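tool_call predict_complex ligand=flavin-adenine dinucleotide
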Amino acid sequence: MEKSQIWVFMEQRGGVLHEVGLELLGKARELAEVSGSTVAAILLGAEVAPLADRIINHGADLVLVAEHPALETYRLLPYTDVLTRACRERHPSVLLFGATRMGVELAPRLAARLKTGLSAHCIDLQWDANGNLLQMVPGWGGGVVATIRCPDHRPQMATVMPGVMQKCESSRRSGRVITLTVGEDLDVSGPKILSIDREEPKTRALETAEVVIAGGWGIGGPEGWKLLEELAALLGGAVGATRPPVDEGWASEEQMIGQSGKTIRPRLYIGVGISGMSHHVVGMDGSELVVAINSDPKASLFEVADICIVGDFREIMPPLLEEIRRRLGGKQPH
Ligand SMILES: Cc1cc2nc3c(=O)[nH]c(=O)nc-3n(C[C@H](O)[C@H](O)[C@H](O)COP(=O)(O)OP(=O)(O)OC[C@H]3O[C@@H](n4cnc5c(N)ncnc54)[C@H](O)[C@@H]3O)c2cc1C
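tool_result ok
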C-alpha cells in the first residue's frame, strides 16, 4: 500500500525560499515519524529545481517541482490551477501552507476547489488516534485554543504563521525529485504583472532579530517612535508594533506582531506602551526575556514580563538610551 503523504507548499520568490516552508517541513517530518507518512514538498516557479537539495536537507523525502514561465512570479490563478491538478492526481493526506500573504490567498482558493476544509493560523498540529490531523487554532483573541479536525475530506489543509514551527537541522539527507507536467492550458487569466519594484526593508527583519523593541498605542506618535528606533539601532535589533501604530501609520504592516502579524522568538523583547492584549501576546510569548514599560501598573503585559518598569516611557527611555550608549562606549552590536 502506498504511504500517505504530508505535503508542504514551498513559497519562493525570485528563487529564494521563504523560511516558513522550511519550518513547516520540520513539523511535517515530526508528524511523519509518528504516522510513517512520506513528506513531500511542492515547489512552483520557473527554473526552481536547484532549490530541491536544500528542501530535502530540511526534511522532505520527495520534491514535486512544477516549472513553467507562467509560474515564475506568483499569480493566484495559475498557481491554484497547478496545485489543484497535483492534488487531484496524487491525493495528499495533509497540505500545509505558510500564513504569508501568498499562503493566505492561495490556500482558501485551493481548499474551495478541492471541496475540503482549511484551518487558518494554526499554532500546532498533531495526530488523533484515528490518524486525523488535529489543527490547533487560537480563538477569542488567543484566550482559548480550538482543536479542528477534517475527518471526511482530503487533503487536511492548514496555514501556519511564520516563526511558529521549528526547522529541523539541515543534514545530508537523500530524497527524490519528481517533475510535474504543467499543461499549456494553464489558467493565466486575471491580473498581469507588468513590472516589479522592490522596496528595501526599512528595518531589520523581525523574525530573525535577536532583539525586538515593540511599541504600542501608548507611544502616541512618530516623535515617541523615534526613541524605539534609536534603542533598536543601539542594540542591533528590530522595531515591532502592535496593531494601533500600524493603523496610524507610525509602523508598517510588516512590523506587526501577533495573531494577524508575525510570531517572534527573540532573545530580548522590550514592549513599550503596550497593554498586552492576547492578540499581541500570542506573537511574542516565546521571547526569552521580556521587558515591559507601561504607565499602568495593571497592564496585562506585565503578567508575561520578566522585568516590569512602571512609568511614562518619555521619562524612562532617554536615561535608558543614555546609559546603554555609555556602556557600549561607541561600540554597537551587529
Ligand atoms: C481579530 C483581531 C486580530 C488582532 N490581531 C492583532 C495582532 O496581530 N497584533 C496586535 O498587536 N493586535 C491585534 N489586534 C488588536 C488587539 O486586540 C489590541 O487592540 C492591540 O494589541 C492593542 O494595542 P496596544 O497595546 O498598543 O494598545 P492599547 O491596548 O491601547 O494599550 C496602550 C498601552 O499604552 C500604555 N501607555 C499609554 N501612555 C503611556 C506612556 N506615556 N508610557 C508608557 N505606557 C503608556 C497604556 O497604559 C496602555 O496599556 C487584533 C484584534 C482583533 C479583533
